[in-house]
From TrEMBL, chains A, B:
Location of the HTH lacI-type domain: 1-56
Keyword annotations: DNA-binding, Transcription, Transcription regulation
Higher taxonomy: Bacteria, Bacillati, Actinomycetota, Actinomycetes, Propionibacteriales
UniProt entry tagged with the keyword Lipid metabolism: no
Entries under InterPro entries matching the protein: Cro/C1-type_HTH (IPR001387), HTH_LacI (IPR000843), LacI/GalR-like_sensor (IPR046335), Lambda_DNA-bd_dom_sf (IPR010982), Peripla_BP_I (IPR028082)
Protein name: LacI family transcriptional regulator
Residue ranges constituting the HTH cro/C1-type domain according to the UniProt record: 1-25
Amino acid sequence: MTIQQVATEAGVSPSTVSNLLNGRNHRMLPETRQRIERAIDKLGYRPNRAARQLRTGRNTTIGLVVPSVGNPFWGALARHLESAALAEGYHVLLCNSERDPRRERDYVDELWADGVHGVVLCSSLPSLDHVMPLVERGLQLVAFDRTSQAGDPASLVSISVDNAIGSQLATQHLTDLGHRRLAFVSGALASVNRKERYRGFTAGLEQAGIDPATSVRAPVKGDADDFGDVEASELGRAAAAELLALEEPPTGIVAINDMCALGVCRGLRDGGLEVGKDVSVVGFDDIVLADLYAPTLTTVRQPMKEMAAAAFTQLRSRLDDSGPTQGQSLLFRPELIVRESTAPPT
Amino acid sequence: MTIQQVATEAGVSPSTVSNLLNGRNHRMLPETRQRIERAIDKLGYRPNRAARQLRTGRNTTIGLVVPSVGNPFWGALARHLESAALAEGYHVLLCNSERDPRRERDYVDELWADGVHGVVLCSSLPSLDHVMPLVERGLQLVAFDRTSQAGDPASLVSISVDNAIGSQLATQHLTDLGHRRLAFVSGALASVNRKERYRGFTAGLEQAGIDPATSVRAPVKGDADDFGDVEASELGRAAAAELLALEEPPTGIVAINDMCALGVCRGLRDGGLEVGKDVSVVGFDDIVLADLYAPTLTTVRQPMKEMAAAAFTQLRSRLDDSGPTQGQSLLFRPELIVRESTAPPT
DNA sequence: CGAGGCTGGTGCAACGATGCACCGCATGCT
DNA sequence: AGCATGCGGTGCATCGTTGCACCAGCCTCG
């Protein structure tokens, strides 16, 4: 089914069909228009994307680079982003970087070579230097789950939840319940987001009149490489054991994310404590699993659907040329979801 | 960077460059070849996919249609499939059907219109009639997690784990531990796979000399619509409550999948029982979560990586025209993974 | 010595959609 | 009368790659 066949069927020239297809139909006779429309769905015509892209240089595919869709958090993003894109006739090309910087760059290169002009990048890297050359050539980049930084390209859009506030909400929730000895469990504070979450934690403590110095940050030994996802739970488990060995173990624990929190729960249980009774645990993200675990996990929800929709909208408006060329930073408001894993200290 | 520029740089015609690029270099002077190769990476040339596809009608993108990448099981598939595809220079276009048959069909249509000739379809539907028209036009289809059926297109490749064996392994594991009162928890046995799993369950019972009639299948009230993923856990939880209300509750439970199994664990705990001690539970799939839950879940592992690789290989060989045109069914061997959720009956 | 074969390439017409330049005609303006 | 303007479309070159048809030059062989 080519545009030529449609044109023949409708008794017009291919140009006219093209005009209609591309909204240049201001001065087209309604009658002509209807003839074409009838021909189109009589023949079941769909424009050939390859031809269209070859001619225009544009396309309707955006790239999504995530650490791993095996992780429910990124899976959820993929799902929502795809949903938003689909509604506008866009497609999503999925790429798993496996947290390998090189693979991340290769993917973005590949996408660019394929004519993809917009990419949602969920980078684990603090710097975006590796993709700068393409950004300079016009690649539109949306950084997800990563607040913007000094060296970032001017056109960059950053989309993230307000990590400091989220973390503070979690902490406050614990102090409101009466907890006074708190701990923050995380790997190395290597990314901006992690630092922000820690900042929220200390802010929450201060607000409750607790000296952050008396709180624990575990594990201290976390190094810069522990960016893993599944490993986050291992880390949480180990950290829990460490905390239990203290003379005065904390009664409330704020974890860097849900996976980590689940690991902490696991570790606490290993140590004979009951989460949601003897100890309280708060996570971050609100992955589906949080509501399935036993006990269900109190956590800080990221409005994924809205964030994904925003990512797409931003990208699209910039691809449609009309959008602002200037970068910006979108911070979403996190929401505390209280479930069973938190309770007043006993 | 066009092929023309490379040709000029190398002092040959575009055709010659194209010949090299497409492996038609049998009778090419090694010297010419090197000149071209040098030109290519001097200019950093990458062939334009749109142009190539327009000309040849082929492309290197395959489609993946899953119910939802939000579900870790499908996320894992996406990850592994993408990995296999990447190694051969192929891309994966991700589509979430959200278990909506119409959306599923629309996606496949869309992919076809985009020039995608190969799709891995993880359909929740027993029949594939809705995509038959495209298959007849040449779409290569690999059905994943769905054994082939009578009405399927002749060219269809089906990839699945051997569900009957898997389920039998799970059942056998319980009987070997000494359990005699078993239950099978599932929604309606609406899909072939589910029926197979139930068949494996009864086979396992018979092998242990237990009359399947004495075992329980819960919930009886499951209807055909309960195909959900998150809902699977709700279903498990409800089923557990139901089972506990029996006069002689089962001591061993085989769940249709891991999510359902986790729901069952949840329900049992609600009823005051300790999983892995008072009751044993076995799942199916071995999602990442199975090893994180408390207690860790004994389950039947599907060799996802191998299955995903096979899906890609099958698709590719058929897309490269050379492959067999005849459909086939690949059944993978499941593996029992024993963890903490199973123990001898007390 | 001329027909035929091999070698190492090249010429060219597609693939399907796009969008600018342009057309003939009618009407308005001065 | 002479020129601009609006209308409803159409003609055509073009995007980058491909692969069949073809070519000139040289070798071989009866």
